[in-house]
Structures are given as structure tokens and as C-alpha cells.
Design goal:
Distance between the termini: 47 Å
Keywords: 4Fe-4S, Iron, Iron-sulfur, Metal-binding, Signal
CATH topology of the largest domain: Alpha-Beta Plaits
Shape: globular
CATH architecture of the largest domain: 2-Layer Sandwich
InterPro entries: 4Fe4S_Fe-S-bd, 4Fe4S_Fe_S_CS, ET_IronSulfur_Cluster-Binding, TAT_signal, TAT_signal_bac_arc
Protein name: Molybdopterin-containing oxidoreductase family iron-sulfur binding subunit
Organism: Chromatocurvus halotolerans
Low-confidence stretches: 1-37
GO molecular function, one term: metal ion binding
Structural class: alpha+beta
């Protein structure tokens, strides 16, 4: 990180500290101070001033996880479990999607929203399923808002698009504070507590796979997925960018992503690219595959193929 970037962050944090201290003093003598009283103020300040995830000690990560779980309890009145699940050894995840099997039902989208605690109010979705004319690969001429009750439509095919988990991710290069990076298992992640919301990464992504929280995400308490991961589906705050993370809370425990499990046609194949006996390696070796916008050199770990 450059000195200029560090100075900018330090200045922002000093301004925050001043505002927090002022707000705390203003409510200290009142009967009720839910926003800045007691542990709430300490948790807010702790989150803002905590170190970058990759530089935190185990003890600091444990403190951060405790703050995340307490905030979820205050906000949603639910007890979540937030884990710091590390990447598995000798694993690099990849995805392949059979577009001849995808029928556009969008079950993958719904499953992703539920699994990853996405904002219901803005209808944020990590997966876009595009309705395309047969023979066309022009994403700009696709239909994003088709009626899923009418699919499949004759003369159309369906192309789900999400984060491509690029090996050469332009979003990572664009981030001025290193709030996003690629993990050893190939997943591009975001440190939500380090993101400053500049949205440079959104501009850099050629797949429109990153999404900004313009407001506090709205999720009914009964719909909260309580099994969360620090670099995955834990509740996010307003003002940060988020994206698909291959369901780290599932895949790093040996399970399949929610979208893969929900697909009713078996179009989705997920697995370890380093395992020569995996199904995804079979697809890459034996099927005619392509990647979106491959000419850009982003090296996506997400392939499409047909029977």
C-alpha cells in the first residue's frame, strides 16, 4: 500500500473516531443509547480500526469474529456462527456449466440468495441468468428479466453469469486498499471490514459480478443463514462491495456450492482443478469448452460447455 493510501485511510479513521467519540458523549447521559452505548460503541470502533485480515493474528481474528456475531445478534436477534475456515491444501476450485442442460429456471439464483444472506430489499443477486438467442454470444442483446414461469422458450438458451474467479483478476488490481485478493484455493474474496466502498473493483470487473450495498442489507431474521464464514456469507454492512465467493462456508468443508446443489437439471459442475480424477477435469479434457471474454486475459476459472 502506498504512503498516500495509508494517509488517506488514517485520516478517514481519525474522522470516524472523532464522530464516534462525539456521538458517545452526546448519548452518555440519556436513558437509552442503543446506537453508541457500551459494547456497541466498542464493537463499532474495533471493526473500523482492526487490521487487514491477512495481517491479523489468530487472537485478532477471534476478536473480529466475536464482533461479527454480536452485531448479528443485535441487528437480527439471531445467534450466528462465524468461522475462519482456511483454504484446503492442494485445492483450486473451478466451475463448469453445461448450457445445453440449463433451462433458465433460476433455482440457482434463489438458493444463492438464501445461502449467502443477500439483501432482500434491493433484490441483490450474485448470479444473473441471461436469456439468449440461439447461436448468439452477445451479452448486450440478452434478456435479464424474463419470466421464469415460461421457460424454456423455443429458440432461446440460458447463460448464467456470476463471478468468474479469475486467475488474473482485474478487480484485485483496481482496489486501492487491497481489500480484495485471490486465496490459495483460487477464490477471490473481499475483506468487508477493509473495503472503503470506492467501487473501483466494480468498474474493473468485465462480468458485472460485483455489487455495492447502498443501504443496510434487509434480511428477515427467520431467513438468516446462521452458518457463516468470515470471507464469505457473514452479514455485510452498508457501503461495501460483495460478490460470489464459491460459498466458502460450504466448499471449504467439502460440500458443493448452494447453486450447484439447487440446479434441477444437473447443468452445474464444481470441483477441484488439481484433482485429475474430478468431474470438472473430465469436462475440461473431453468437452468443447469456452470462457466468457477470454480475449481480455482474465483467465476465468469458470467454463461453459455443451453436450
Amino acid at each position: 500500500m502506498s504512503n498516500l493510501q495509508s494517509e488517506t485511510i488514517d485520516q478517514s479513521r481519525r474522522r470516524f473516531l472523532g464522530a464516534a467519540a462525539g456521538a458517545g458523549a452526546a448519548v452518555a447521559g440519556t436513558a437509552a443509547a442503543p446506537a453508541w452505548g457500551g459494547s456497541t460503541l466498542m464493537d463499532t470502533m474495533g471493526s473500523f480500526f482492526q487490521n487487514h485480515y491477512q495481517r491479523m493474528s489468530d487472537e485478532e481474528i477471534a476478536d473480529a469474529i466475536g464482533r461479527i456475531e454480536r452485531r448479528a445478534k443485535r441487528r437480527y436477534d439471531v445467534d450466528i456462527i462465524c468461522r475462519d475456515q482456511p483454504p484446503q491444501e492442494d485445492v483450486v476450485f473451478g466451475y463448469a456449466l453445461n448450457i445445453s442442460k440449463c433451462q433458465g429456471y433460476r433455482d440457482c439464483v434463489s438458493a444463492c440468495v438464501r445461502e449467502n444472506n443477500l439483501d432482500r430489499g434491493s433484490q441483490m443477486e450474485y448470479i444473473r441468468v441471461l436469456e439468449m438467442e440461439e447461436g448468439s454470444r452477445n451479452l448486450e442483446h440478452s434478456e435479464h428479466y424474463y419470466d421464469p414461469d415460461t421457460v424454456p422458450v423455443e429458440g432461446k438458451y440460458y447463460l448464467p453469469v456470476q463471478c468468474m474467479q479469475c486467475d488474473n483478476p482485474p478487480c484485485v488490481k483496481a482496489c486501492p486498499v487491497e481489500a480484495t485478493w485471490m486465496e490459495p484455493d483460487g477464490i477471490v474474496v473481499v475483506d468487508y471490514d477493509w473495503c472503503i466502498g470506492c467501487r473501483y473493483c466494480m468498474t474493473a470487473c468485465p462480468y458485472q459480478a460485483r455489487h455495492f450495498n447502498w443501504r443496510e442489507p434487509q434480511i428477515p431474521s427467520e431467513d438468516i443463514n446462521r452458518n457463516t464464514n468470515y470471507l464469505g456469507n457473514r452479514p455485510r454492512p452498508r457501503g461495501v462491495v460483495e460478490k460470489c465467493h464459491f460459498c466458502t462456508q460450504r466448499t471449504r468443508e467439502g460440500r458443493q456450492p448452494a447453486c450447484q446443489e439447487a440446479c434441477p437439471t444437473g447443468a452445474r459442475i464444481f470441483g477441484n482443478l488439481l484433482d485429475p480424477s474430478s468431474e470438472i477435469r473430465y469436462v475440461l479434457a473431453n468437452k468443447k469448452v469456452f470462457r466468457l471474454k477470454e480475449e481480455l486475459g482474465t483467465e476465468p476459472k469458470f467454463w461453459y460447455f455443451t453436450d
